[in-house]
Amino acid sequence: MYIAVDDTDSREGMCTTFLATELIKEFEEYELLDYPRLVRLNPNVPWKTRGNGAVVLKLGKGVNKKNIIGKIEDDIFIYDGESIPNKKIVDILTRSEKVIKNWAELKDDRTDPGLIVSTKKTPKYLYEKTVKDIVTLEEVIDTLESKNIKYTGFGKKRGIIGAAAALAWEPDDHTYELITYREQWKWGTKRNIDKEQVKGLDKSLNSVFDSYDYDEDASVIDPNSPCPVLYGVRGDNPEELKKALEIINIEKPESWITFFTNQGTDEHIQPAEIKDVKPWISVKTQGKVTKEPRTIKGGHVLFDVSDSKGNSITAAAYEPTKSFRDIVNKLIVGDKVLLYGGIRKDPLTLNIEKMKVLHLNEKIVKIGNPVCPKCNTRMSSIGKNAGFRCKKCSTKSSEDDIETENVERELEEKWYETPVSARRHLSKPLKRMLKR
Ligand SMILES: [Zn+2]
To answer: If you measure from the C-alpha of residue 403 to the centroid of ligand 1, how many angstroms do you get, rounded to a whole number?
Structure first.
């Protein structure tokens, strides 16, 4: 039996992953038949609350005990086992609703939880479409009705979209996140996380990614919001992640659980030609720089890229991408780049997540006017684009004779990515991408 939940948090608190731990507590007579899933969806949807992530639990009657994946009062294991029979659906739906009512930020009018309880999964396209594009609630409800899948929602019920999409996920790629939670009386108080310990964790655990931002010299495992999460550590190896519990040891978490996730997989990215780019999707596309980088108000760096068919788009490294802007600023007209990023609507802009420099153009700068071959002194300009003339002997020279120099480029033909602090949950870090 699957329980899928989305959109229970607000900017002021809660976290849908914490709600998953409360659901696990509620259904203590059952066992988990798989890791709980944390599924991130289109990061560009304009109405998302925070991270746009949904959770899915698979519950059943456990037979064969497998590994330990968390601790919520007692140790939590995953099992091989049998699903809960269909006839229990209404009971499980009712009890899950009660948990959501207890914990979700229902007073926030932007929090619109959705809940699905089902013995079967939703159709795969729902995930594909929701992670990459925009899906309407009507479309999702039609699908659920046609498959006779039980669902419910609160407020505007938008969370049904995420819950249905998360339940549809068939992983091609995946990662894990071990998330720890604080005792309730500490929620909203300052987290006691030592950044040296986080740096130590980042350096000692091979499969871990996106935990420390060396550009900003800051930990990124602890959130800034007043939510129940103490910290979350991401990586490819769930066993290795458990070492975080010993390494990060100043504030002790009350509970922890390992999620199976689509974070760090680039599943939101679709290949697109510049002419096909539209708002709210995320693309990879390539072209030549046709308008050199410029810094606008707010510290954002923009440049224009065009493809061989003459279509062009403005690409941006926004202020929060910090040092990445210095890299982008070194691009010149004629450089060829492959860009990954989300599309912003007004004005239509590609918000760069990472970039591969495919080809660096030669950077030629003028050193001085042509030198007179007779007098060995620099000639003077006659006028704009009109050539040069020696003041002493009147010898003429053309614009082509300007003395130039080939300047060494400060970029390389390789990948560059935004700093960890500015990274999307779904963005595949170069650490994962270039590993294989
Ligand atoms: Zn001369």
So the answer is: 16
Q: Which of 125, 146, 168 is the last residue of a domain?
A: 168
Residues 225 and 292 in one domain: no
Domains held by the chain: number: 4
Alpha carbon distance 358, 356 (integer Å): 6
CATH of the domain at 329: 2.40.50.1010
Model confidence pLDDT, tens digit, residues 65-100: 999 999 999 999 999 999 999 999 999 999 999 999
CA of residue 396 to ligand 1 center, whole Å: 9
Residue 49 confidence (pLDDT): 52
Same domain, 141 and 210: no
Query: Residue 393 belongs to what domain range?
Result: 363-407
Residue 184's CB: how many other CB atoms inside 10 A? 9
CA 378–ligand 1 middle distance (angstroms)? 8
Bridge partner list, 338: 286, 356
Q: How far is the CA of 379 from the centre of ligand 1 (A)?
A: 8
Q: At 343, which amino acid appears?
A: I
Asked which of 206, 226, 261 is the last residue of a domain, the reply is: 261
Cα(402) to ligand 1 centroid in Å equals 15
Please check whether residues 157 and 75 belong to one and the same domain: yes
How high is the pLDDT of residue 50?
57
Identify residues whose C-beta is under 5 A from ligand 1, the ion: 372, 374-375, 390, 392-393, 395
Which helix (H) or strand (E) segment is 195 a member of? helix 195-204
Please check whether residue 7 is in contact with residue 113, taking contact to mean a CB–CB distance below 8 angstroms.
yes
Q: Do residues 63 and 34 both lie within one domain?
A: yes
